[in-house]
Amino acid sequence: MATKEQLFTIITPEEGANISGGKAYELVIKRLYCVKAGADILGDDETKLLVNGSKLWGADMGAGSNKEFDPLLRVSVDNGEFVGLYDGDGIWSRDDSMGGFTINGLQEATTINLSGSGSQYTLTYKVIESSIF
User: Fold this and answer.
1) pLDDT of 59-109, one tens digit each?
2) Does residue 27 surpass a pLDDT of 60?
3) In the chain, where are the structural domains located?
4) Is 132 helix (H, G, I), strand (E, B) or coil?
5) How many helices (H) and strands (E) does the chain have?
6) 3-state secondary structure string across the chain
């Protein structure tokens, strides 16, 4: 007959995610700041944050626009998932990329520069261990 020690083991959140198929990390976004809006010829950028192609947040932003997320913007993520910033162009053309990054494990709070299609942004975020179990 098996003992308790043989039936149970301690695993890390990453190991648990691999077994269950769940997410191992959580992306936490604090702030998005528009340095320069230039993806469109006229007006503000129709800014969208996407995680692996799924929309997380969106709003029009012009130069000097600042979005402080309160409560913080949070989403479960896995290693290798892409977080992208885009300017929405509607159904007739492809959205313009304004930069992005790939999730690569835990990340302390950091501010990164994102740029593309004539726009420049800064994004403050961190990647923490997931609180799901």
Assistant:
1) 999 999 999 999 999 999 999 999 999 999 877 778 999 999 999 999 999
2) yes
3) 28-129
4) coil
5) 2, 8
6) CCCHHHHCCCCCHHHHHHHHCCCCEEEEEEEEEEEECCCCCCCCEEEEEEECCEEEEEEEECCCCEEEEEEEEEEEECCCCEEEEEECCCCCCCCEEEEEEECCCCEEEEEEEEEECCEEEEEEEEEEECCCC
Q: Are 77 and 27 in contact (CB under 8 A)?
A: yes
Give the separation between CA 70 and CA 81, rounded to whole angstroms.
Answer: 24
The per-residue pLDDT for 18 is 52
**What is the reported pTM?**
0.81
Looking at residue 93, what DSSP letter applies? S
CATH class of 28-129: mainly beta
Residue 55, number of CB atoms within 10 A of its CB: 11
Higher-pLDDT residue of 9 and 26 is 26
Q: Tokens 């029009």 belong to which residue?
A: 60
Q: First CA to last CA across the chain, in angstroms?
A: 29
Q: Which residues pair with 86 in a beta bridge?
A: 48, 97
